[in-house]
From TrEMBL:
Keywords: Secreted, Signal. It holds the Pfam family KWL1. One of its GO terms (cellular component) is extracellular region. Belongs to the kiwellin family. InterPro entries: Kiwellin-like, RlpA-like_sf. SUPFAM superfamilies: Barwin-like endoglucanases (SSF50685). This is RlpA-like protein double-psi beta-barrel domain-containing protein. Its main location: secreted. It comes from Selaginella moellendorffii. It is found in: Secreted.
């Protein structure tokens, strides 16, 4: 079995995005840096390995624009996720539920958005780099249901499986 860090290597980058810079924040693109772009994601299995990240899907939140699937904002108490571009599959998973497992717990969450693996470093993407190709970007309540609080070291970036 592939080690977790090798998952990205299955799907090779399809180029690089060069950051214009001009914004300063913890997660912002750094001026002069280049970031990998991915059109694909690892194959989906019954237990697909991924990285769980946290996103604010509310209006004015760090998610930026309304969700791609329904052009709506979503309350952070709603279990919703954005999937990396390859897994988002041009919206074919919109409105479907995924099972996310970690810490011996499983949560159901609805796919409402794409975690863009091709574009970033601009206003529409909150000046953040493109997503990696193995990201499940979840609302805070998903983290809570997995037993991870904002004070935990894992909060914001954690290994999971999903189906």
């Amino acid at each position: 079995a592939a080690r977790f860090s090798e998952i990205q290597d299955i799907c090779q980058p399809s180029g690089k995005l060069h950051a214009p810079g001009g914004h300063s924040c913890d997660e912002c693109c750094k001026e002069g840096e280049s970031y990998p772009r991915y059109e694909c994601s690892p194959q989906v299995t019954g237990k697909t390995k991924a990285i769980l990240t946290v996103n604010d899907f509310e209006e004015g939140g760090d998610g930026g624009a309304p969700s791609e699937c329904d052009n709506q904002y979503h309350d952070n108490s709603e279990p919703v996720v954005a999937l990396s571009t390859g897994w988002y599959a041009k919206g074919s998973r919109c409105g479907k539920f995924v099972r996310i497992s970690a810490n011996g717990r499983t949560v159901r969450a609805k796919v409402v958005d794409e975690c863009d693996s091709m574009n970033g470093c601009d206003k529409d993407h909150a000046f953040e780099p493109p997503c990696l190709n193995n990201i499940v970007d979840a609302s805070p309540v998903v983290w809570k249901k997995l037993g991870v609080s904002q004070d935990d070291d894992d909060y914001g970036y954690m290994k999971i499986t999903w189906a």
